[in-house]
Amino acid sequence: MKTMKFKTAVITAIFCVAFASVSMAQAQRGNDRKKPPTYAELLEQMDKNEDGKLAKSEMKGPLKNDFDKVDTNEDGFISEKEFKKAPKPQRREKK
């Protein structure tokens, strides 16, 4: 009888530890999401001719696809002000 209670207690403890580990891993995954880049970071990464402006030819990804929506004054460049007011890109659908 004591052996049965001990086995039950051990199995319960193992289950609790495993459940806690899975729960913590899932919670951490949500915190690992990338933050959107700042305008300064975009300039550093994409401003190939280093003129301090972001032209459509220098863009890539969702920002290039939505360039015309973001360039509200239609001068061919995305300013920091336009970037801050830009609509957030749509998330890709999971397959």
What does this structure look like?
The chain has 95 residues and is mainly alpha-helical. It is 55% helix and 4% strand. The protein contains five helices and two strands. The chain has helices spanning 2-31, 39-46, 62-65, 67-70, 80-85; strands spanning 54-55, 77-78. Strands 1-2 form a two-stranded antiparallel ribbon. It is rod-shaped and about 80 Å long. It starts with a helix and ends in a 10-residue tail after the last helix. The mean pLDDT is 80.
What is the share of helical residues? Answer: 40-55%
Beta-strand share of residues: under 5%
Arithmetic mean pLDDT: 80
* Secondary structure tally, helices: 5
Q: Quick one: overall form?
A: rod-shaped
H/E order of the elements?
A: HHEHHEH
Q: What strand order characterises the main sheet?
A: 1-2
- Largest sheet: number of strands, sense, barrel closure: 2 strands, antiparallel
Record field, number of beta strands: 2
**Gyration radius over CA:** 25 Å
Classify the secondary structure makeup into a structural class: mainly alpha
> Could you name the ranges where pLDDT drops below 50 across 5 or more consecutive residues?
none
What is the CA–CA distance across the termini?
51 Å
